[in-house]
Amino acid sequence: MPSNGSKALKLQFGLINHKNRYLTAEAFGFKVNASAPSLKKKQIWTLEQEDQDGQVVFLSSHLGRYLASDKDGKVSCEAETKENDCRFLIVAQSDGRWALQSEPYLRFFGGSADYLSCFAQTIGETELWAVHLALHPQASLLSVARKRYAHLAGPEGEIAVDSNIPWGVDALLTLVYMDGKYCLKTSDSRFLSNDGKLSSVSGRGTGYTLELKSGKLAFKDYEGKYLTPMGPTGTLRSGRCSKPGKDELFDLEESHPQVVFQSANNRFVSIRQGVSVSANQDDETDMETFQMEIDKDSKKCTFRTNEGNYWTLVSHGGIQSTATEVGANTMFDIVWLGRRVALQASNGKYVCTKKNGQLAAVSDSAGERTATCVTTKTPIRWTANRSVYDIFTLHFNDGAYHIKGAGGKFWYVSNSGLVCSDGDTPEDFYFEFLEHGRIAIRGKNEKYVRGDQGGILKGDGEIADSSSLWEY
Predict the structure, then answer these.
(1) What is the pLDDT of residue 134?
(2) Residue limits of the Fascin-like domain (predicted)?
(3) Residues 6 or more apart from 415 whose CB is under 8 A from it?
(4) Cα–Cα distance for residue pair 20/14, rounded to 1 Å
């Protein structure tokens, strides 16, 4: 069975105390406090679970040090390894909050500001923490039991758990944090109710408490029941169980960008005709959509089909979709040319379109013959200095994009170089997928959009560096 080629996301989150302040790991003296009003780098914690005992967890700070408590309840965050004092248990509450219990000493962690301790014998209001996930809100949901992915399906709409591969925007679910609980939002902006129906508004039945079991996630509704796939199509709804078993467990996986290529002959690149990758179609289907997976180290890219195979270089420069594993011949370099891109294969040649439409890596240079237009089918979000996100709509325009906000206004770069979002007319921006999970955006002035230290967006970047790379 094809897989998505993704690993389960590491759970990263902020912990909010009873005074609505985030648990913070300071660099100076490795001290911890609960004073921050928002979620930024110092407030992000990574959950790691013990291999032998899946109920024991470790909390790692942004500095790679572990939260710990000694027998007297003194809290620190300077341990470089998972010592005995770093072992905690999560006690989930019905309102979605967590209590953290020291596993060796059975005391509970809590407090406010600089006065934190792990010495309470019972759970009170000061020992309860709301969980604010810090990972990308859009992810693929994999059922542990069925080994299938969730997606929006059916004429009236339901979330079905029956896909071998999460393909297209229908397979993306957005985790929406509301009042300490999480909602599952579909690509058409509807919320999953515990009865399996989709609602245009959130309510009591659409909020779920996150629970962890052996490194997997379970979603508990307000009645104490858990989401589970049911029936032949795996309709996602609350079942009868009041304790999560294998059927109620899920992994969250990162979503790779999925793209469509339009060649110089104005036809779409496809695998509809068989194993040869050819530009010979006039419409877009799953056969013309390819998953773009960028290697974190080499920055080279592979292209996966909806059948789970990869593009690969074969004899005489041909490109086929026959590779089942990533290797040297499945790797391509991408040259970004504004509205177009060129692909360089492992033989050093550029991919071009032959007269019969077949793709072949036989050109010595990146020019008009080798350039293709690429359309992304991936929802995008950008953040600069906020703990919440805005969703923008992308409109494709001949290799460029118009970016529209919720109010119907467009992005543009002003004469002073500021990126504004109140335009009445659209302006072209060019997208460059440069790293794993990172994108650069170039304005019509050929400068990159970057975020300065104050979180202000400016369209004046000369190069694509850390200030001008954005998570998608």
Answers:
(1) 82
(2) 19-131, 142-252, 264-368, 383-472
(3) none
(4) 11
Residue 48: both structure tokens together = 């790691």
Place of tokens 């007269």: 355
**Among 154, 238, 140, which residue's Cα sits nearest to residue 192?**
238
Among the listed residues 122, 54, 305, 94, the one whose alpha carbon sits nearest the alpha carbon of residue 180? 94
Residue 369, pLDDT score? 64
Q: DSSP string spanning 314-355?
A: -GGGBEEEEESS--GGG-BEEEEETTEEEEE-TTSPEEEE-T
Residues of the chain with CATH 2.80.10.50: 12-133, 138-253, 258-372, 381-471
Name the β-bridge partners of 447. Answer: none
Architecture of domain 12-133: Trefoil (2.80)
Q: Which residues are 250's β-sheet partners?
A: 143, 217
Which of 182, 25, 18, 38 minimizes the C-alpha distance to 108? 18
Give 120-164 pLDDT, tens digit per residue: 999 999 999 998 888 777 889 999 999 999 999 977 789 999 999
Question: What pLDDT score does 441 carry?
Answer: 95
| Cβ–Cβ < 8 Å for 249, 281 | no
pLDDT attached to residue 389 = 64
Quick: pLDDT tens for 454-463. Answer: 778 999 999 9
Length of the chain: 472
| CATH dotted code for 258-372 | 2.80.10.50
CATH code linked to domain 138-253: 2.80.10.50
Please state, in angstroms and rounded to a whole number, the distance separating the CA atoms of residues 223 and 113. Answer: 34
Please, are residues 336 and 343 in contact by the beta-carbon 8 Å criterion? no
Alpha helices by DSSP H, listed for 187-297, are: none
pLDDT (0 to 100) of residue 7? 59
CB 310 within 8 A of CB 304: yes
**β-bridge partners, 161:** 150
Q: What is the pLDDT of residue 381?
A: 47
DSSP 129: B
Find the helix or strand (DSSP H, E) in which 248 lies: none
The token pair at 52 is: 């032998």
Question: How far is Cα 317 from Cα 315, in angstroms, rounded to an integer?
Answer: 5
> Does domain 381-471 sit in CATH 2.80.10.50?
yes
Report if pTM > 0.70.
yes
Over the stretch 417-455, which tens digit does the pLDDT of each residue have? 999 999 999 999 999 999 888 899 999 999 999 988 777
**SS3 assignment, position 310:** strand
* Residue 16 pLDDT exceeds 50: yes
